[in-house]
Design goal:
Elements (H helix, E strand, L loop, with lengths): L4 H68 L2 H4 L3 H13 L4 E8 L4 E4 L13 H9 L2 E8 L6 E10 L5 E10 H9 L8 E5 L5 E5 L2 H4 L8 H9 L2 E6 L5 E11 L2 E11 H4 L1 H67 L7
Antiparallel strand pairs: 1-2, 1-5, 3-4, 4-5, 6-7, 6-10, 8-9, 9-10
Helix pairs in contact: 1-9
């Protein structure tokens, strides 16, 4: 019988290690499930933040529409006296810092009245919001422009104006200051590294935080994040942002889903989103490793008392028994040899 204490201890440790492997596999499965749970939680939080920001931008657009509807119904503005019309719009403009101008244009697109003084004739027939308002017989939101009257960046909202017979006679419009859109973006309570971005339907950045001064008014329809937002309108996706940082984005649109007025997106850096899962993995791995080391050490130490010593005693006893049996067998062989060599009894 071959027996050594180190080999027996190694086998005991091997059994312990075999028992640890399933625990490690369970750890991997649990870590993946935890990562999925955390990512889904981040998606939900990002989407909630997106909806909160979108509601504020929707309020700006809806307030503009309501003002325009009220102006479109004012009899004195349907066939305006230029001086009186200017006074009315200038007074309204003084009470709304969200807007840079209010005005009226006829069906040909010529501006007939403005809250700001007109230094020269202005025509806005080529503006998309004017065309869409006349075509739809209702309100329409435009894209980013530099105002021909204000000389400031913004987006216009236009509303069709009807004559006494109910036919479209022109539009009343309001210019929304981009600074107001930027203030809303900056006011969002987002963790460091998160971003909020507002786009028009052409992919022009109307507001962004952080980095608004760098990215605002840039048109980036081919950027992966912008292209995805414009194509899908609403959803979540892991994308590389315009600043090169990979984020988990949640985005939604404002207005008609088939022709949105604005797009709002909130992005969470992937490394931030997965940080809790990474911490869970590191902690679990460290605990599992510690338990494995303790189990191996315990098996190595305990095997000496619980396994090696008793088995060693059994092996020693077996060897003694084997030795005794061997000695007895030798004696028996010696005795048989002695009997065989001795002379037999004499016969006389």
């Amino acid at each position: 019988m071959s027996f050594t204490a180190p080999s027996l201890r190694a086998r005991a440790v091997g059994l312990v290690l075999v028992a640890v492997v399933p625990a490690f596999a369970l750890l991997v499965i649990a870590a993946r499930r935890e990562q999925h749970r955390i990512v889904e939680g981040v998606r939900a939080e990002a989407y909630a933040a997106t909806r909160t920001a979108a509601l504020q931008y929707r309020d700006v657009v809806e307030s503009s529409r309501q003002i325009l509807v009220a102006l479109a119904r004012m009899p004195e503005l349907r066939q305006p006296d230029p001086a009186r019309c200017h006074d009315v719009l200038a007074d309204l403009l003084a009470h709304y810092d969200t807007y840079t101008n209010l005005g009226i244009a006829d069906l040909a697109g010529d501006v007939t009245c403005s809250g700001l003084p007109l230094a020269a004739p202005v025509n806005i027939a080529d503006r998309s919001e004017v065309q869409r308002a006349v075509r739809s017989n209702g309100p329409a939101v435009g894209e980013y422009r530099i105002g021909r009257i204000t000389r400031r960046p913004g987006i216009n909202v236009a509303q069709a104006v009807h004559d006494d017979s109910g036919r479209v006679a022109g539009v009343v419009f309001v210019a929304i200051d981009l600074r107001r859109l930027g203030e809303i973006a900056s006011s969002q309570s987002l963790p460091t590294g998160d971003s909020v971005t507002v786009l028009d339907r052409r992919g022009t950045i109307l507001a962004r935080s952080p980095g608004g001064e760098t990215w605002t008014v840039k048109t980036l329809p081919d950027a992966p994040v912008v292209r995805t937002i414009l194509a899908q309108g609403e959803g979540t996706a892991e994308l590389t942002g315009i600043d090169g940082i990979t984020r988990l984005y949640a985005f939604t649109s404002i207005g008609n889903p088939r022709d949105p007025d604005l797009h709002v997106a909130v992005g969470v850096p992937v490394e931030h989103a997965l940080a809790p899962a990474a911490r869970f993995w590191r902690t679990s791995l460290a605990l599992t490793g510690l338990l494995a080391v303790l189990a191996v050490a315990t098996a190595w130490l305990a095997s000496g008392t619980l396994l090696v010593a008793p088995v060693g005693a059994l092996v020693a006893a077996a060897r003694r028994v084997t030795g005794a049996i061997s000695a007895l067998a030798r004696d028996c062989r010696t005795q048989r040899t002695s009997w065989a060599s001795s002379p037999g009894p004499s016969t006389t």
